[in-house]
Amino acid sequence: MAIRQSSKLPSSSIKNKLRKHARRYHGRANKSWVISKYLQELDRFDREDVRKHAAHVASWIAYDPKGRIPKTCLIELLRKYIAKLGGGLLPERLEVVLPDAKTALQSGFTMGEISEVWRQAAHKLQRILDKFRCCRPPTDQVLAVAATQESAADDVVVVPDDDEPSHEDPAALGASSQHLQLCRRINQWGFLDDVQKLERLRQAEEVARRPWRNLSEVDLAEVVNLAATALAAPRRKALAQEEEAGESGQASASTDPGANHDLQRRVRSLLLRVLRMWRASQYDFGVIEHVLGFVHVKIDKFEEKVGSIQDAAAGRCWQAIKDVIDELQGVARGASGLQACEAKRRERLFRRFQRQSGVQNICWKKEIASWRVQRVEAGKHKAVHFPISKHTKEGLSEEEAVAAALEEAKAHREELVRQGKLQPSKPKATGSMVRGVKFNTGGSFRVQITNPRTKKRQGGTFKTLAEAEAKAQELAKEWGLHDEEVAVERLSELPHFEPLAPEPGVKWRRGAQHWRAQCHVNSKNRNFTVKPKDYSEKEVEKAWKQAVAWRKQQEKEREQAERARKR
């Protein structure tokens, strides 16, 4: 599968060779074994081997004959190979294939349903690829020319320095309307004098001093945009010390450097404050996504050229800004930690699902994709499951299989009623699907909904169902709660993960959303399940390792038991 490298070959010949290599890979039935082999050999490869095989992996993503979405494990493999490339010029083969790999990743976002883990891995790889000159979009040059023409029209030439924002960062993020608007803001900021800049900064600081509960999303977004517009790139500490030494040594010099230094200190403090307010208010991340990406590019460039952002001037403030941005981006990709627990708690207390049987003793079990008929007999809980897998194997769609399984569950319940093991189903006192509406035994209706900010229950008691539902809907709209009725996720829409390595007995269960490990010890099957806290790469890998460790421990116990029997 190796390709003989030749720097004299034209790019078309190199691309054709890589296409042939990709076709051979995609024609294999054991692609997961190839990926695991490349991952194992990465540790012993030297620099030349890494550069050669990185082109192989990139071609698997770029030149899929059927145009399929690349798997997450393949994206992670390419990211690990690129991380070990080292410095220096890229080989010609990588310069040819990496732009095509980036294009394939971008097209994957528009092809069908993609999981959040895939989206996160693809975004990480795209950000790494954007650092290579061969992968930068042509819009960089277009925006640079546009900015030059705009400056020339006003007979003004803007030359960005260390204290003025650069025009290249937002262009690297794309040519969307938001990025273009940010470019115009940066141009306008460059034309202002120091007095105008200080006045605008003072107005933004006054807005940021208000309590975050009294600030609307529009007002806060405006302050975030202004702070990002005025923000200069991070600098080394040595440069800041030299600047201060120059100011003290030249009494007749201009006071602009000192003013700029104080201005940037206030801008950084303002940006950090409003980002924390945005996080506390839980506003829409998409409104300021382009601004956060712009600031993150500045930090990435410093860390790439100099080192850790903590070593920059005002390193503590820069590190705090980076941490808040990473947290906001992590929350946008998938709620985690306390927010995830709060979301699950709200869902468990208030949300009602469309997939309901409408019959007592019959409920839907999402973990195993099955209807369950449950009853209590002689003080013991008994249940019978009717999974949809039986019907999907017969060629029915998922919704048709759900309906067929429900009919079987209802028929089984009727049989239990005839046997006297269950009572006939009784209609509910209230058929309301509005959350928080409950029926009182006295004939009235009670509304109880928890305010997400004060954590206090509010509502009241009403004589009619219509009045209770109207009050519940009014409170839900006022507090921005979810809709009353929520569709159940299909199995095909749930996240699915392939094993991270060839490990028998460990697999991902889509319905239950956890890793399951099995092992046969002492004539008994043992099972172990572990569910990741969220669907981030770190948590999924952590849960996988726990399942694998349990499996290996059981295998050791099995070997010891076999040796004991042989004695």
Automatic annotation (TrEMBL):
Gene3D superfamilies: 1.20.5.2050
Region of interest: Disordered: 1-23, 238-260, 416-437
Polar residues biased stretches: 1-15
Highest taxon, organism lineage: Eukaryota
Protein's name according to its UniProt entry: Uncharacterized protein
